[in-house]
Give the backbone structure.
Amino acid sequence: MRDQDTQRVFLKTRSVRLSVNADRMNAQSVKQLIEQMFEERGALHYGESVTQLEHALQCASLAQQAGVGSALVIAALLHDIGHMVHDDAAAAFKEARDDHHEALGAKWLRRHFVDAVVQPVAWHVQAKRYLCLRESGYWDALSAVSKQTLVLQGGPMNEAEATRFEQQAYAQDAVMIRRWDDTGKREDAEVLPLQHFLDLVPQVVMPTVDGVLGSL
Ligand SMILES: [Fe+2]
């Protein structure tokens, strides 16, 4: 083997070590995990007139209709997964506590998904606070539940917070999710089936060791 070839193999091997977590689940396993999550917890009450699954499907269907990429469609589907990954969501709502579902959701998603899925989810509550400041009439149009949770989430942003928010890499994606979040609460909405969205999951999961080695 020439020196140049040896170096190339070394660099490729090194980049695998640096970028891939050996414990990471493969795409099929992540897909099954999401499916199982909705099977077990999708019927939970969202807090308005829809279930968690109905709300997730409405948001993802709105994202699909908007023509955005797969990462943002999956982010829309999973933006409230933080409500489903812990047992305290219903109690928190009743007791008027913020369950910090956006942070819990982002933490859970970070183990499996690329940043373009994780970050819009992490910022979608801040996007609501942002829109309350920047968009006239936005607060008035919020549902009663959203107005109630807004208080727990810190209320409308101030100017300095809004400026910082606008500088975040995925701020505009988070704003889009927030708008679908506001709309996706209808009792009679037509949605695409969960399987349609599960089929997009492999496009946006983090690579595994097997996957990367297979592509070398
Ligand atoms: Fe939501």
In short: The radius of gyration is 19 Å. The pocket of fe (ii) ion is lined by residues 55, 79-80, 181 (CB under 6 Å). Residues 1-19 have pLDDT under 50 and may be disordered. The CA atoms of residues 23 and 208 lie 8 Å apart.
